[in-house]
Design a protein that fits this description.
Largest sheet: 2 strands, antiparallel
Strand order of the largest sheet: 1-2
Distance between the termini: 54 Å
CATH architecture: Orthogonal Bundle
Length: 295
C-alpha cells in the first residue's frame, strides 16, 4: 500500500502540472470563447524568456527575472489582442481558433531566433530531494509547485468571484453583446484575460522547464492538457484542477500497475480514453456549464 500511495501522490503532482496549462485554456475560453492553441507556446516562451533573463543574456536576480518575464508575457497579451484578435471581432469562432495556431507558430519562431533551438536547463535553486511524509516519499520540488498551483487557483477563484473586474469578465463570457450593452469594453476584458493567462503560462513554463528543461517539445504539453479540459469542462477553473489530478493519478497508476501486462504505453492513451468515456456520459465535462440553444 505504501508503494501504491507513492505512485498515486506522484501522479497527483504531475496532474497539477497539467492543470496549470489547462488553466490558461479555460481562462481565455471563459472570457472570449476562443480555444487558444497558443497556450503551450506561451508556456514555452515564458520559460525561454526566464532563461534569457537569468543566464543566457542578462544574469538578473531570480525575482527580477520573473518580473521581467511577466512583463514580456503582458506585452505578448497586448499584441495578440490588438493585432490578431481585434480585426476578427464578430468573425466565426473557427477564424479565431485558426488565428491562435498562427500565434503559436509565430511565438515558436521568435523563440528559436532569439534563444536558439537547444534545450536549456532552468535551475531555480529548489532542491529536488525526497522527503518522507507518513512513510511516503515525495519530492520537495513537486510539493513546492503544488503549493504554488494551489495559491494560484485560490487567487483566480477569488478574482473571478469577488472583484468587479472578475465579474465583468464572467459577464463577457456569458454574453458578449449583453456585456457590451451595459458598458463593459470587450477588448479590455480580452486583454486582462490574456494577461492573466500569460501569468499562468509563466508558472506552467517555469514548472515544466525546471522539471524537463526548457525545450521546444514543451509546446506538446498542451496536447496532454486537452483531455483535462474535456474531462473538467472548458469553462470551469475548479474542473481544470480536479481533472488534472484525475488524469495525472490515473495515467501514473495505469502505467505502473497495468502497463507491465499490456506492454506499457498506458500514459500515452489513458487521458484520451478517459476523455472519450466522460464525453459519452457528460458532453460538457464533469464541471462544465451545460448550454442548451433553442433555434
Amino acid at each position: 500500500m505504501t508503494f501504491f500511495f507513492e505512485v498515486l501522490v506522484t501522479g497527483l503532482m504531475v496532474g497539477i502540472m497539467y492543470s496549470l496549462v489547462a488553466l490558461g485554456f479555460v481562462l481565455i475560453f471563459k472570457a472570449s470563447e476562443v480555444f487558444n492553441m497558443a497556450q503551450g507556446a506561451m508556456s514555452l516562451f515564458a520559460g525561454l524568456a526566464l532563461v534569457g533573463f537569468l543566464d543566457q543574456y542578462l544574469q538578473l536576480p531570480l525575482w527580477l527575472a520573473l518580473l521581467c518575464t511577466v512583463a514580456v508575457m503582458t506585452i505578448w497579451a497586448y499584441a495578440i489582442v490588438f493585432i490578431v484578435l481585434k480585426p476578427l471581432v464578430a468573425r466565426p469562432p473557427l477564424m479565431l481558433f485558426m488565428a491562435t495556431f498562427g500565434v503559436a507558430y509565430l511565438m515558436e519562431g521568435i523563440g528559436q531566433s532569439i534563444y536558439g533551438t537547444q534545450a536549456k536547463g532552468l535551475n531555480l535553486g529548489i532542491p529536488d530531494t525526497p522527503i518522507v511524509i507518513g512513510g511516503i516519499f515525495m519530492s520537495t520540488f513537486d510539493l513546492f509547485f503544488t503549493g504554488v498551483a494551489a495559491i494560484l487557483v485560490i487567487g483566480l477563484v477569488w478574482f473571478f468571484q469577488k472583484t468587479r473586474t472578475g465579474r465583468a469578465l464572467r459577464a463577457v463570457s456569458d454574453d458578449h453583446e449583453a456585456a457590451l450593452s451595459v458598458g463593459i469594453p470587450l477588448l479590455k476584458a480580452w486583454t486582462i484575460t490574456w494577461i492573466v493567462a500569460g501569468v499562468v503560462a509563466t508558472v506552467a513554463g517555469v514548472a515544466w522547464g525546471t522539471r524537463l528543461g526548457v525545450q521546444f517539445s514543451l509546446t506538446y504539453i498542451a496536447l496532454k492538457s486537452l483531455p483535462v479540459l474535456i474531462i473538467g469542462g472548458l469553462d470551469s477553473i475548479p474542473g481544470a484542477i480536479i481533472a488534472g489530478l484525475i488524469v495525472g493519478a490515473g495515467e501514473n497508476l495505469g502505467e505502473v500497475f497495468i502497463g507491465p501486462y499490456v506492454g506499457g504505453g498506458i500514459q500515452t492513451f489513458f487521458p484520451y480514453l478517459l476523455a472519450l468515456i466522460v464525453l459519452y456520459f457528460r458532453p460538457y465535462g464533469l464541471f462544465g456549464k451545460e448550454i442548451i440553444e433553442r433555434v
